[in-house]
């Protein structure tokens, strides 16, 4: 669970950093396509170094399919759809829709990995998601932007589904490959597409330094280092229960913004955060598998 929390802490800054990298419709910076392929190419270059230094063997034939699904979900689908959506809506607005990510991830884990949990776990998962959605809506109103459904919400829903499948299929092969090698192979597999696309889409117009800061963060931390902890947490603790640590993501984002942006921490945020933590803790206790479920076993056994 703590590995999951650590991964979520890295991911918590993805929304504002992506927004910083892409800019807005009025003042665009880096294109969403460039941010999508560029961050994966940056992570891919770091992955090659890691795999060579650690002398990692090639994945087995049965492991290529889930790795490919992780490429489609985490390397292409999620960042691309999110980047385009954030040109239309604010990060606060996007947080309302992406609050459904933990619940959708748990549903995908139940379907793909055949993991089962008691009814109480699902009640906690739904309640936790609703708490985060309500909190996100209130925060959007607090910042004066309000919340109303936009066409870009369809992109955000697609991003949530893509990320969920990428997370779960990556976690499926983590016990056999190790979390670091999973994300490294995912990024390397995408390089034949992401590297040429990055060179073709390299911005020709001047780009603000803040946009490049956002780009480097999503490439190094959101696309690479964060998955070291996240995939390992999903595999060790069970993707069904550890996926619920994502409910903490908006509150960790606010916590990070206090020293970075000087934002205050109000009582309402603390109250919602405490309630969400309670649903995660209770849900963990109720997430013991029921009869007929299977554990998150690796596709192949690790060789000595």
Notes on the protein architecture:
The protein has 304 residues and is mostly helical. It contains 13 helices and no strands. Helix 8 packs across helix 9 and helix 8 packs across helix 10. The radius of gyration is 19 Å and the shape is globular. The C terminus is likely disordered.
Please sum up the structure shown.
With 304 residues, the chain is mainly alpha-helical. 72% of the residues lie in helices and 0% in strands.
Q: Give the overall silhouette.
A: globular
Number of H/I helices: 13
The largest sheet, given as strand count, sense and whether it forms a barrel, is: none
What pattern of helices and strands is seen along the backbone?
HHHHHHHHHHHHH
How would you describe this structure in keywords?
mainly alpha, disordered C terminus, 304 residues
Describe the SSE topology.
Blueprint (H helix, E strand, L loop, with lengths): L1 H10 L2 H9 L9 H22 L10 H22 L5 H8 L2 H12 L6 H24 L9 H26 L1 H22 L8 H29 L1 H4 L6 H13 L5 H19 L19
């Amino acid at each position: 669970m703590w590995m999951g929390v650590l991964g979520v802490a890295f991911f918590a800054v993805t929304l504002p950093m992506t927004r910083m990298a892409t800019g807005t419709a009025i003042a665009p910076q880096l294109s969403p396509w460039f941010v999508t392929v560029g961050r994966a190419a940056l992570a891919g270059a770091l992955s090659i170094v890691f795999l060579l230094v650690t002398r990692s063997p090639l994945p087995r034939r049965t492991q290529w399919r889930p790795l490919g699904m992780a490429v489609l979900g985490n390397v292409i689908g999620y960042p691309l759809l999110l980047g385009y959506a954030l040109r239309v809506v604010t990060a606060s607005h996007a947080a309302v829709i992406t609050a459904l990510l933990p619940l959708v991830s748990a549903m995908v884990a139940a379907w793909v990995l055949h993991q089962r949990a008691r009814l109480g776990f699902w009640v906690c998962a739904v309640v936790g998601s609703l708490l985060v959605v309500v909190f996100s809506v209130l925060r959007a109103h607090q910042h004066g932007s309000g919340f109303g459904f936009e066409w870009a919400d369809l992109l955000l829903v697609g991003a949530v589904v893509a990320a969920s499948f990428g997370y779960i299929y990556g976690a499926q092969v983590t016990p056999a490959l190790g979390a670091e090698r999973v994300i490294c192979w995912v990024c390397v597999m995408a390089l034949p597409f992401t590297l040429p696309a990055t060179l073709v889409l390299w911005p020709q117009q001047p780009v603000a330094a803040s946009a490049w800061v956002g780009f480097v963060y999503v490439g190094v931390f959101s696309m690479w280092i964060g998955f070291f902890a996240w995939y390992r947490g999903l595999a060790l603790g069970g993707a069904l229960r550890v996926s619920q640590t994502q409910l903490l993501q908006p509150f960790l984002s606010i916590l990070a913004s206090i020293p970075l942006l000087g934002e205050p921490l109000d009582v309402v945020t603390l109250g919602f955060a405490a309630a969400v933590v309670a649903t995660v803790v209770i849900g963990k206790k109720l997430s013991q598998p029921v009869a007929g479920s299977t554990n998150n076993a690796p596709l192949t056994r690790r060789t000595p």
